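User: Let's play a game. I give you a shape written as tokens, and you guess the letters that built it. Ready? Here's round one.
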């Protein structure tokens, strides 16, 4: 694993200790993968690669607080009420309501298959998380223009187009814009360039990386693209074991 930036005094954006992730099946929790110690310093980027079915999406959804860990600790900085300095808290035992508030206030997720509304136009797709926060057009127009500009999405040309009529690369840039428009602190991206041709993949990856850097977003990216991940701060892979849990290790 390589590290390009020294971590500073502020707590990591995410830290996992002896975390076991899995899904909750009919016979109780089924464990898939463990990570003994994973640290994502604020503003850093990390990649995760691994075989299909090895547990990357399950891990990412757990780091994104959507799935509960089977066991272990998942630490995030939280600003307690009436305080300004963050305190590190273990999310593993928090209620769903508290987790949903943490997600709303700082997490964003790009799903493996883009979850866009095909018959809505580009502007409304990007606006979706802001509409869900009760914002009106006068409030969301500025942030949408700024993020679409960063991702090279020309709203004068594309703003009114139904998303279902866009190319794969344009759709991926719309999902990245939608994930960044809320100004998250942490972005979890599940193979956001997986379905693109090599040239478009590099372009979309560069736009994503630059937008995250500019906004100091901490990024965890699942991808198989070994060439592109060299540009991220840290690289991890899922080691698949025959007789015990899969394991997240430095690549
Ligand atoms: N809710 C669930 N019920 C049953 N099995 C599940 C569930 N969620 C995940 N799994 C299984 O857990 C394993 C890991 O799935 P996951 O989607 O995390 O893999 P992945 O590494 O992201 O794979 P891919 O590269 O194909 O996206 C798979 O065998 C999958 O079938
Ligand atoms: Mg997956």
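Assistant: Ready! My guess for every position:
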């Amino acid at each position: 694993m390589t590290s390009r930036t020294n971590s500073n005094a502020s707590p990591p954006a995410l830290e996992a200790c002896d975390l076991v992730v899995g899904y909750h099946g009919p016979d109780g929790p089924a464990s898939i993968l463990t990570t003994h110690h994973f640290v994502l310093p604020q503003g850093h980027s990390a990649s995760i690669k691994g075989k299909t079915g090895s547990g990357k999406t399950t891990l990412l959804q757990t780091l994104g607080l959507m799935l509960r860990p089977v066991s272990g600790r998942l630490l995030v900085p939280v600003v307690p009420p009436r305080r300004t300095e963050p305190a590190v808290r273990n999310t593993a035992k928090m209620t769903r309501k508290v987790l949903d508030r943490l997600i709303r206030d700082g997490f964003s997720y790009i799903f493996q298959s883009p979850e866009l509304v095909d018959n809505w136009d580009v502007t409304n797709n990007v606006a979706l998380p802001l509409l869900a926060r009760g914002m009106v057009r006068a409030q969301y127009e500025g942030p949408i223009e700024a993020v679409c500009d960063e991702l090279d999405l020309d709203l004068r040309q594309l703003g009114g187009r139904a998303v279902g009529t866009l190319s794969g690369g344009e759709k991926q840039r719309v999902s990245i814009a939608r994930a960044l428009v809320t100004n998250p602190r942490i972005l979890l991206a599940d193979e956001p360039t997986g379905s693109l041709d090599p040239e478009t993949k590099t372009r979309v990856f560069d736009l994503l990386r630059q937008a995250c850097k500019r906004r100091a977003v901490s990024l965890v990216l699942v991808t198989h693209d070994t060439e592109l991940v060299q540009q991220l701060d840290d690289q991890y892979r899922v080691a698949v074991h025959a007789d015990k849990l899969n394991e997240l290790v430095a690549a």
